[in-house]
Design brief:
alpha/beta; about 15% strand
């Protein structure tokens, strides 16, 4: 069994990871995927607490089954416990879980909860999604891109749509890896300036090109186009759906946009709102859509993270 050499302490925010750590995780994810039997005892005797404030299909299943494939035990702590910090302090929650679990996986509403868990837990913390970042998804996406194109340094990736947590993580990870990345968001829907500044700094250090625009016609040549829902989970009641749909309509990812950019593949983290951010025909196009490859790679990417955090 091959183990990582550049050990992680936590996996919570993309900009906290080095290029070598990311490349090692991508390589390990592909290795585990190709040789799962060699890793079936990698987490033997380890227990993972999975804290979920938000509902989930892919995150819950991919962690639960991935941990089982590695010989570990996962305990799901769902919404019956309420939002972190309401029933009891997050610091107490973290310290209690650290008494029992070897690691904490948390899917939460606010990044502040992730930060507090990391500060007060004495075991590794994995960010399974928050309002700012979705590093597990981004890592799985770059595993997928590596399988599709082999040499990430030659890949041109564009994200089209809302500047949400997925866009943040993709942009930050691309910048760290030196991947050329284009972010296309309508005016007023770009990521926070602090995240944009982080990405620009990382891109300059990593040698990749970062382009940020609101002009869909400035997309240019791309190898892959990525999109996500126009309204994120938890924001349904905070945004005017009709206004959002009108604003984002020109940013729909479809066969015409794929042809204009020359993109080979389309990516989506799911669940998709078909005929909104992506057409049904493109989502179901087996020649171009890699959405289910991405979904499977969530399990292998997260397996690589947990092995890196916990394997002796």
């Amino acid at each position: 069994m091959s183990l990582p050499t550049d050990k992680l302490n936590h996996f919570v925010a993309d900009h906290q990871l080095t290029k070598q750590q990311l490349l090692s995780l991508i390589d390990l994810a592909i290795t585990i995927k190709q040789n799962p039997a060699s890793y079936r005892q990698a987490l033997a005797g380890k227990s993972i607490a999975m804290v979920f404030e938000k509902p989930s299909l892919r995150t819950h299943v991919s962690f639960d089954m991935g941990i089982a494939k590695l010989g570990g035990h996962a305990l799901y702590l769902g919404q019956q416990n309420g939002k972190l910090g309401e029933r009891e302090r997050v610091c107490d929650y973290a310290k209690n879980l650290s008494c029992y679990a070897d690691a904490i996986v948390a899917r939460v509403f606010n990044n502040s909860a992730i930060e507090q868990l990391t500060q007060h837990a004495t075991v590794p913390v994995v960010n399974a999604l928050c309002d700012l970042y979705h590093p597990c998804q981004a890592l799985a996406d770059f595993v997928t891109l590596t399988e599709q194109f082999t040499d990430l340094s030659q890949v041109k990736l564009a994200y089209v749509g809302d500047g949400n947590n997925v866009a943040n993580s993709l942009m930050l990870m691309a910048a760290t890896l030196g991947v050329d990345f284009t972010l296309v968001c309508p005016d007023g829907y770009q990521p926070k300036q602090t995240v944009l500044d982080q990405a620009l700094t990382l891109a300059q250090a990593g040698g990749g090109q970062l382009t940020i625009t609101s002009d869909i016609n400035a997309l240019g040549f791309q190898n892959a186009i990525y999109t996500d829902t126009w309204i994120s989970m938890g924001d349904e009641n905070a945004k005017d759906k009709q206004q959002v749909q009108a604003t984002f309509k020109p940013y729909q990812v479809n066969h015409q946009l794929m042809a204009a950019s020359g993109a080979d593949i389309v990516m989506h983290c799911q669940p998709a709102h078909l005929e909104e951010e992506i057409t049904t025909a493109l989502f179901d196009d087996e020649a171009k859509s890699v959405v289910f490859q991405q979904a499977e790679n969530r399990m292998w990417a997260q397996a690589a993270v947990l092995v890196s955090l916990l394997a002796n």
